[in-house]
UniProtKB/TrEMBL annotation:
GO terms for cellular component: cytoplasm. Residues 830-893 form the HTH luxR-type domain. One of its GO terms (molecular function) is ATP binding. This is Regulatory protein, luxR family. Keywords: ATP-binding, Nucleotide-binding. PANTHER family: TESTICULAR SOLUBLE ADENYLYL CYCLASE (PTHR16305), TRANSCRIPTIONAL ACTIVATOR DOMAIN (PTHR16305:SF35). Gene3D superfamilies: Winged helix-like DNA-binding domain superfamily/Winged helix DNA-binding domain (1.10.10.10). One of its GO terms (biological process) is regulation of DNA-templated transcription. Pfam families: AAA_16, GerE. It comes from Actinomadura madurae.
Length: 893
């Protein structure tokens, strides 16, 4: 019986009950060693009607990538072939069960775990238990948490148990937590009375005081003296029990404690090399130190027993145990565990072992398991006797960690490798890795400096690679708004005579024309250069560059071209399950949807992209997506949300996100009638050092300045926007330019407004068109042309209501009343089918309407098939349909 844990038991029982009813849930139990986390997991594991998967993190194997996942899911290897092919191959590669190069992508592994757990739960409700999660290797923990965050409507419960002190942090952002405290005095006394002989009153009080409510301490401390924390006393208690075992039993216990799999065959083989046998397990089992699990594995009964067994054993015994296990796994054909036990079996540099590890790493790399490859290369480096070999292996580890999506680890490894690499080519390759990581982590200035250094160092050895690196350096400098550095990098690359010098010159021309208030000649040349460059990027550069080219479509006003590029990239990355780049694609997709007035689609894409960016640690992209969501909040008049979403971007002041964030707040001010605030905010953007991307803010600045009564402050901005619009030649841009001219003219603006509306009808930007109609309607009303004004204002109101632009719709209503209309107060007016659904429901319904199955939809949206069904079930009544067969006839735009 678990005394004093009524609240915790109720929480766990409720989690399990909901899982059996088809509602997923995850919980993290946190507390000190011995506080009862494992006992609560035992309670959960005993629940009726659930399949239980259980694993325990092992400290000395916390650096072995996917060891925990192997222990948890390895027995279901026969199911991997039934997963979507990219996921199945990725999971096989990660667990060293086959696969091809590049398939061990950590995001695909997480998706595979999600799908496999959902498949298992279709047969029977599933319970996943992870004890000592703080010791579980990072890739395994990451894959399980990735899946946990996407569980919604499956009969699955997941419970992680982790220490909150004296151990590495188990970071589980967004997962509910339950922190375990010590038992109260009454519960502690009852536990003590049940599990120990009657103690003298004074001794009982001493035990209760020393244990401080720690259940394991209460069971281990009676009649034991000494000092120290409850953790240390418990460890000593276990050490004394271990010391009392026969020598051969201690050897067997040490082997079990040194291994994560508990594979009886491997342990028996290793025991033979250590002078022990499986029969020696009996004394340890009788002492409560060892047990055989239901699936036939050998394991210690509590994580602290493992700690005590390893720490109390002499060094030579620990090394001998690992060497014996290494040989046992080698004979069983398990190269990965053979390698890891080899590492643990030596204490000083050993080139023979280092070479074995490097060979294993190369084999693993060919199988795609990049996380384990990085760890093996690092271990080989640590055991290298030669400094240059150490540096080479650390550099290989850094590249593998970067390929595995572990940027922080890769940066650390690269920094360690740099000092030990005498070869200039090897140093250049390492610097390229560091530069790419800096760019991904939004350390843009570090990125372009490192790209440029690397380009210069290899220009004579490999001019093509050098040219590519100069291009990356120049692009990074442009993204940072450092146009001086951009010009210097381009000049250096051109002087070096790299093959793509023309592309570098084009890039310089592009951004010369994109700087606010550039000359007309620079602007025209920049637009032409960008068009040339985008043609080259379609064929000469990689996937990240193609995303960048899609964003550059927007610099020449080609919103539809950007939208088409985004759609093609999104389709490709979803089909391939390439979640790592999908966040950046959705960044482009959401921005184009916003400009095209597809606000629901923009919300859906930005919300999904943000979730992926959070999961994959892509902070720069997540902050950019926050600004898209902030812009939507600004349009809707949601001040609290707009402010929250822009705080980080404004604090970091890194363009273009900082510019978009300031523009979102200014748009909010404009919609709410705070014109002076909008003027000041946009003045700072347009005069500050990070002005790249500010072109889109110019029309808002013009309107705010005119409404604030200071049109003279916006004269230059309006003229420059007009020049830009003329050079890009897009009807929507020329329409907004005509609107700006109408606001700023001292003469009759009627013709300018009429021209703007004519152009809007070609351009397809409904929010901007509605703004023009509102301004035109206001002018017509002031000019006493009430009938004409009402026509324009009604059109604006209809569009604002459809788009959910609440403050703008209210202003249109106010103007209509002033024009003599009798209106009742309206809501947001979004009586369209798509507006009835959440962003995720809308995504699911649209894909279902194309005829895709739940499994196919799940593979594209990184959800389980059951969660897809759950969203459809919720969507049907909102749409007034009975099933998916009716979805095809609905207008879901």
């Amino acid at each position: 019986m678990l005394y004093g844990r009524d609240g915790e038991l109720a929480a766990i029982d409720g989690l399990l009950r909901r899982a059996r009813d088809g509602r997923s849930g995850t919980l993290v139990l946190r507390g000190e060693a011995g506080i009862g986390k494992s006992a609560l997991l035992d309670h959960a594991a005993a629940a009726d009607g659930m399949r239980v998967l259980r694993a325990t993190g092992v400290e000395n194997e916390s650096g072995m990538p996917y060891a925990g996942l192997h222990l948890l899911l390895g027995r279901y290897a026969d199911r991997f072939g039934g997963l979507p092919e990219p996921q199945g191959l990725a999971l096989c590669a990660a667990l060293n069960m086959g696969g091809r190069p590049g398939e061990g992508d950590r995001f695909l592994v997480g998706l595979a775990v999600l799908t496999l757990l959902a498949d298992l739960a279709e047969e029977r409700p599933l319970l996943v238990l992870v004890d000592d999660a703080h010791w579980m290797d990072g890739p395994s923990a990451g894959a399980l948490l990735f899946a946990a965050r996407r569980l919604e409507a499956e009969p699955i419960a997941m419970i992680f148990a982790a220490r909150d002190a004296d151990a590495p942090e188990f970071a589980a952002e967004g997962i509910p937590e339950l922190r375990l405290r010590g038992l109260d005095r009454d519960a502690a006394r009852r536990l003590l009375a049940e599990r120990t002989a009657t103690l003298p009153g004074r001794t009982e009080q001493e035990v209760l005081a020393a244990a401080m409510g720690n259940p394991l301490a209460l069971l281990e401390l009676p009649a034991r003296g000494g000092h120290g924390s409850a953790y240390e006393r418990i460890r000593r208690s276990y050490a004394e029990r271990i010391a009392a075992l026969p020598e051969r039993a201690r050897r067997l216990l040490l082997l079990v404690a040194s291994d994560d799999l508990g594979d009886v065959g491997a342990i028996v083989a290793a025991a033979g090399r250590c002078g022990a046998s499986v029969d020696d397990a009996a004394p340890a089992e009788r002492a409560g130190l060892l047990r055989t699990t239901a699936d036939g594995r050998l394991e210690v009964r509590h994580p602290l027993i493992r700690t005590a067994a390893v720490e109390e054993a002499p060094l030579n015994a620990r090394l001998a145990a690992h060497r014996a296990l290494a040989e046992a796994y080698r004979e069983r054909g398990d190269d990965c565990h053979h390698a890891w036990h080899l590492i643990s079996g030596v204490t000083e540099p050993d080139e023979r072992v280092a070479a074995v590890l490097e060979k294993t790493a190369e084999t693993e790399r060919d199988g795609g398991g990049n996380a384990s490859v990085a760890a093996m290369y690092e271990a080989a480096a640590e055991l290298s006797e030669d400094r240059a070999e150490r540096g080479r292996r650390l550099a290989a580890a850094a590249r593998a960690a970067a390929d595995a999506g572990l940027p922080e680890r890769a940066v650390e490894l690269a920094a360690r490798a740099e000092a030990d690499l005498p070869d200039p080519v090897a140093r250049a390759e390492l610097t390229l890795t560091r530069a790419s990581l800096a760019d991904e982590q939004d350390r843009t200035r570090d990125a372009y400096r490192l790209f440029a250094e690397t380009a210069a160092s290899v220009v004579e050895l490999d001019p093509y690679t050098s040219g590519y690196l100069y291009f990356q350096a120049a692009s990074a400098a442009a993204n940072a708004g450092d146009f001086t550095a951009l010009d210097d990098i381009v000049a250096e690359g051109v002087r070096a005579g790299v093959p793509n010098a023309s592309h570098l010159r084009a890039l310089s021309r592009v951004f010369a024309g994109q700087r606010p208030f550039a000359t007309g000649a620079d602007l025209a040349d920049g637009v032409a250069a960008l068009r040339e460059l985008m043609d080259a990027m379609r064929t000469c550069y990689g996937p990240r560059d193609r995303i960048r080219a899609g964003l550059w479509h927007l610099l020449v006003g080609d919103v539809r071209g950007a939208a088409e590029a985004a759609a093609a990239l999104e389709r490709r990355h979803r089909e391939e399950g390439a979640i790592g780049l999908l966040a950046a694609v959705l960044m482009l997709r959401s921005r184009t949807d916003l400009l095209l007035g597809r606000h629901r689609d923009a919300l859906t894409a930005a919300s999904e992209g943000r979730r992926i960016a959070l999961d994959t640690g892509q902070r720069r992209i997540r902050v950019y997506l926050d600004t898209v969501l902030a812009q939507l909040a600004a349009i809707g008049g949601d001040e609290r949300r707009c402010t929250e979403l822009t705080e980080e971007a404004l604090a970091r002041a890194v363009p273009p996100s900082s510019v978009h964030a300031a523009s979102a707040r200014a748009l909010l001010d404009l919609g709410l009638g705070r014109y002076e605030a909008a003027v000041e905010r946009l003045s700072d953007v347009l005069s500050g050092p990070n002005r790249q991307g500010a072109i889109a803010a110019l029309p808002d600045f013009v309107e705010a300045a005119v409404r604030a009564g200071v049109p003279e402050r916006a004269q230059e901005a309006g003229e420059w926007y007009g020049k830009w619009a003329a050079h890009v030649g897009r009807p929507w841009a020329e329409a907004i330019a005509a609107r700006c001219a109408a606001l700023l003219t001292s003469e009759d603006p009627d013709a300018l407004y009429s021209r703007a509306l004519d152009l809007h009808r070609e351009g397809g930007t409904p929010f901007e068109q509605a703004r023009t109609e509102l301004l035109y309607g206001e002018w017509l009303r002031r000019s006493r042309r009430r009938n004409d004004a009402r026509a324009r204002l009604h059109s604006a109101l209809e569009a604002f209501d459809r788009l959910g632009a609440v403050p703008w719709a209210e202003r249109a209503r106010t103007e209509l009343r002033a024009a003599g209309e009798s209106l009742t107060d309206g809501g947001d007016g979004r009586d369209v089918l798509a507006a009835r659904l959440t962003p995720q429901e809308l995504q699911v319904v649209r894909l279902a309407a194309t005829g895709l199955s739940n499994r196919e939809i799940g593979a594209q949206l990184f959800l389980s098939p059951r969660t897809v069904g759950y969203h459809l079930y919720k969507a049907y009544p909102k749409l007034g349909v009975a099933g998916r067969a009716e979805l095809g006839r609905l207008d879901l735009t």
